[in-house]
Structure formats: C-alpha cells, structure tokens
Write a structure and sequence with these properties.
Belongs to the adenylyl cyclase class-3 family. GO terms for molecular function: adenylate cyclase activity. InterPro entries: A/G_cyclase (IPR001054), Adenylyl/Guanylyl_Cyclase_3/4 (IPR050697), Nucleotide_cyclase (IPR029787). The chain is built from eleven helices and eleven strands. It is of the alpha+beta class. It has two domains: 176 residues, no CATH class; 154 residues, Alpha-Beta Plaits. The strands form three sheets. It has a seven-stranded mixed sheet, sandwiched between helices. Strands 1-2 form a two-stranded antiparallel sheet. The protein has a two-stranded antiparallel sheet with strand order 7-8. A hairpin with a 6-residue loop joins strand 1 and strand 2. The longest helix has 42 residues. It is globular.
C-alpha cells in the first residue's frame, strides 16, 4: 500500500489546520493512481473528507432543507440525494455564516440566492480554466514520475492552492474598490449612477475562417496573445473588461474618449504579422447584471464591429458627437444590420 501525505492547509475562516493523507493499493493500472491523486487534491480543496449529508447540514445549521438545497443548486452543485454523504466541515462553516447573516437581516433569502448564483457562475469559469491547468500538471507528474506524487500533493497543499486562493481574494477586493470609485465618480458627475457609458467590442478579423485551417496550438497562442493585448489596453485607460469571448473582448469605459483610446491602442499594439483586429464603440445606457452588460448600446457596438474593416474602429452617433473636436471622423453610408435599419456610423481616422 502506498500513501499520499498531502501536507496541510489552514481554513482561512476557522483557523483549523487540515492534514491530508490518502492511501491506495499499489497497482500497475494508471487509473488507480489517478483516482487516488484526485482524492488527495479534493481533500485539499474541500478542507477535509466528506462526512455530512445535506440533511445533516440543514439540521445542524437550522436552515430550511428546501432553501439549503436551492442555495447549493444556485451555485451549480446538484443535490440529488439529501441523505448522501457529500459535504464537509467547510460546507457546514459556510452555511452557518449564511444562517447568521440571514438571522441578522444583513441579506434576505432572495438576495442570498442571487449572490450564490452570481458567485457560482463566475467561479465556475475560473475553476474550469484553473482546474484544466492543475489537472494537466498533475497528470503529467503522475505519468512522468510515479514516485513524485507525494511531492506534487504537498506542492498543491502548501503553495499552489493557497496562492490561487489568495489571488482570488486580492483581485476581488481591488475590483470591488475600483467599482466603488467608478460609481462615486458617476454620482459626482450627474447625481445618479445610471448614466451613459461607452461600450466597446473588438475582435480578430477573419478568425472563423482561420480556425478551420490553423492547428489547435496556433489558435491557443493567438487567443492568448489577443487576451493579453486587449486586457493591457483596457487597463491602461481605466476601462473594464466585461468578458473575453474567444477571439473578442467586450469592455466599458466612463467616457467616449477613453473608449477610443483603448480601441486605438489595441490596434496599435497588435502585431502586424497576425490576423488584423477591428473594433466598434457605442455610447448610451446599459443594463448591468451579474457583471455583464446588456441592451441596445451593447448590440450597436457589436454591429459596428462587424461593419468595421480590418484595422478599423467604427463609432455610433453619440460617440462621434463626443469626439468631433478631438478626433478626425469620416461618416459612412447608413447600413442595415440585424435589428437596426439604416445604422449610422463613423470611422475613426488616424493622424490629425
């Protein structure tokens, strides 16, 4: 029998130190090693073994079982058997904090469910991306060095997982602080947070055609480069990346001039030997939900991007009006696009 001695990890909320040990029977079958490694990693991430059922959790916290089940499902975790041993002491501690907040009236049950759903959506994407990398590294270690599993598990427990967890907390706090600053600035300008914003789209022109012929490795490298250049350009001009969608980025700024600066910098920084980038900008009100933005302004920015030629930035009428004294613009013939007949647009020209 062999044993994974996975080191220890501290619960940041309770201070409890968990030590992770998973034993398996030695075998030549790779699946057994992989399963044991997965169990060791799960024990690290969940803070211990699964010892509680959903019914146990409801009984020990005083939260209604139906509401508890709804919370778990809102976060994306299916609860199909209320008596199955699927939960840990960390889950119990988290649910006790929820019960405490509900009892104090800090949040309503509906608000708590909405928060759970939003958090689940965001972290599901993070977990998919980060988990893919962790699992790739873990499988590589298992295949390359069967005797290196103990070291790998200790590395995860003592270094990698705490690093990722602390990064999540750090970035979340910085992003929340930035949101507060943006909201206060909007109030100071207009007395309300519901003011116009500039929405920008940018994508790689011809990406769909390229993807039919390029290798998976080439596409991955191109998308990584695009994400890097796009996020740098948005961050340099106090914008916010709403989301990255494959070969496209959706961003917002408080002012049209900042939106144009982002689009222009993205195009300027994009390597000339790569498929060209194009962008579209529109200004107006948006509906904000779960960190995303919706509404006609977003739709128009998307349509303008599709009208743009490679290495071109197009803007709508409201954006053009705000830029007319600072940038050279050329009005284009109105065009019919999906959802909009005779959409007017202006091309941003480089130079004075």
């Amino acid at each position: 029998m062999s044993t994974f001695t996975g080191g220890s990890a501290r619960n940041p909320h309770t201070g409890t130190i968990y030590r992770h040990t998973v034993s398996i029977v030695d075998t030549d079958h790779d699946d057994a090693d992989t399963r044991a490694l997965a169990e060791a990693i799960e024990s690290i991430l969940l803070g211990g073994d699964r010892t509680l059922s959903p019914n146990d959790l409801a009984e020990r916290t005083g939260i209604d079982a139906d509401y508890s089940r709804r919370l778990w499902r809102s976060m994306g975790f299916p609860i199909t058997d209320d008596d199955a041993i699927t939960l840990t002491d960390n889950d119990l501690a988290a649910m006790k904090r929820v019960k405490h907040a509900l009892d104090l009236g800090v949040v309503s049950p509906a608000t708590m469910t909405a928060l759970a759903r939003q958090t689940g959506q965001v972290f599901s994407q993070l977990a998919e991306s980060e988990g893919n990398e962790l699992f790739r590294v873990a499988l590589s270690a298992v295949n390359d060095d069967p005797d290196g599993k103990d070291a790998l598990v200790r590395l995860l427990a003592d270094d990698l997982v705490p690093l990722i967890e602390s990064m999540h907390s750090y970035v979340w706090r910085r992003q929340l602080a930035a949101y507060v600053a943006r909201t206060v600035a909007r109030y100071e300008r207009s007395g309300t947070a519901d003011v116009d914003v500039t929405v920008g789209f940018a994508d790689i022109s011809g990406y769909t055609s390229l993807s039919r012929h390029a290798t998976e490795s080439d596409l991955a490298g191109l998308l990584e480069l695009f994400e890097s250049v796009a996020t740098d350009a948005v961050g340099a001009h106090d914008g916010r990346v709403v989301k990255l969608i494959g070969d496209a980025v959706l961003f917002t700024t408080a002012e049209p001039t900042a939106g144009v600066a982002i689009a222009a910098e993205l195009l300027a920084l994009w390597p000339a030997d790569r498929p060209p980038v194009r962008a579209g900008l529109a200004t107006g009100t948006v509906l904000r939900r779960v960190g995303d933005v919706f509404g006609p302004t977003v739709n128009i920015a998307s349509r303008l991007t599709s009208l743009s030629r490679p290495n071109e930035v197009r803007v709508d009428e409201k954006t053009a009006a705000a830029l007319v004294d600072r940038h050279r613009l050329v009005e284009q013939d109105p065009q019919d696009v999906r959802g909009y007949d005779g959409l007017r647009s202006w091309t941003l020209m480089s130079g004075p």
